[in-house]
Amino acid sequence: MSDGADWRPAASRERLSARAALLARAREFFAARAVLEVDTPLVVNAAVSDVHIHAARVELAPECTARAPGAKRPLFLHTSPEYAMKRLLAAGSGDIYQICHVVRGMESGPLHNPEFTLIEWYRLGFSLDALMDEVESLVRILLGAAAAARASERLSYREAFRREVGLDPLRATAADLERVARPLGYSGAAAVPSDAGARVDRDEWLELLMGAVVGPRLGRGALTFVHRYPASQAALARLDSADPRVALRFELYCEGIELANGFHELSKASEQRARFVRDSEARRRRALPPVAPDERLLAALAAGLPECAGVALGFDRIVMLATGASHIEEVLPFPTARA
């Protein structure tokens, strides 16, 4: 029941104005670089398979499904426009970007709202380093004075773990990682929402330590890029030919807040299908709903994804940092709780 005041927007007029100004600056940034703005569907036929990302299922009214062939199958709200944008890239779109709302379940807190805004873009022929350069340029423009005195820092995932928790994430066993986590108050049950007695694997410990310990210490007074994640956390990134233990993936942190996640994109359909299969097994172990592979994405990769790098930037978190907000609801007109 409404308390009588929750009809009002959560964000102030000043922050809504700042939000609009930053959106305009982002579009100016891409227009100056001749990157095409695109607009892909919010309602999609395939959910992502990543065990850490939870898609919201959509049920259309019977009168809609009667008129839309195939609409009776499961539909989802997209958690990222990545799959659709890669289909555009394979069809010859060239450099593209999108500013869109996405929805992810099981996410709430000072930095999370189930519905939020991403800026996602793809650059043909870009290396991981070139994309990091471009991300930093955009973020500095959007943050303005909040970025003026910040250093630029780049370190590998391995260096970040060695510096912050004193171990090598490429060599440490699950037992090594658990020994670091337990004095901080974490246990196997906290690392993974799996059935009782299930074994917590290395990646689950790494994810916990990155999210709860390493990440929050990064970007203090700097824009910190962490690159070359373990190959087991490649997601949709290709592996580093110079060191196949790691993937060509990066994340950007500022004041302990993760702002962006970027890849040198995987283009092999066979490898992507194999990763979908591994994700499916991981979902089964965690008792998560099964997810069918996106066959249209796989067909696009088979047709030929151009050499490219892509990134998703959390726009709401940028607005938070730019305006000094301490909670994501302060920069949203209507967070999900009062939508």
What is the distance, rounded to the nearest whole angstrom, between the alpha carbons of the first and last residues? 13 Å
CATH homologous superfamily annotation: Bira Bifunctional Protein, Domain 2
- What portion of the residues fall into strands of 2 or more residues? 15-25%
Q: Could you estimate the helical fraction of the residues in percent? A: 25-40%
CATH architecture: 2-Layer Sandwich
Overall pLDDT level:
92
Please report the first level of CATH classification, the CATH class.
Alpha Beta
Per the principal axes of the C-alpha atoms, what is the gross shape? globular
Task: Provide a descriptive summary of the structure in words.
By secondary structure, this protein is of the alpha+beta class. The protein has one domain: BirA Bifunctional Protein, domain 2. The chain is 35% helix and 20% strand. It has helices at residues 13-32, 62-65, 82-90, 128-143, 157-165, 174-181, 188-191, 202-214, 269-285, 295-304, 315-323, and strands at 36-37, 43-44, 56-58, 75-77, 96-103, 115-124, 151-156, 222-227, 239-240, 243-247, 249-254, 257-264, 308-314. The strands form three sheets. An eight-stranded mixed β-sheet has the order 1-5-6-13-12-11-8-7, sandwiched between helices. A three-stranded antiparallel β-sheet has the order 2-4-3, with no helix packed on it. Strands 9-10 form a two-stranded antiparallel sheet. α1 packs across α11 and α6 (174-181) packs parallel to α8. The longest helix is centred in the first third of the chain and has 20 residues, at 13-32.
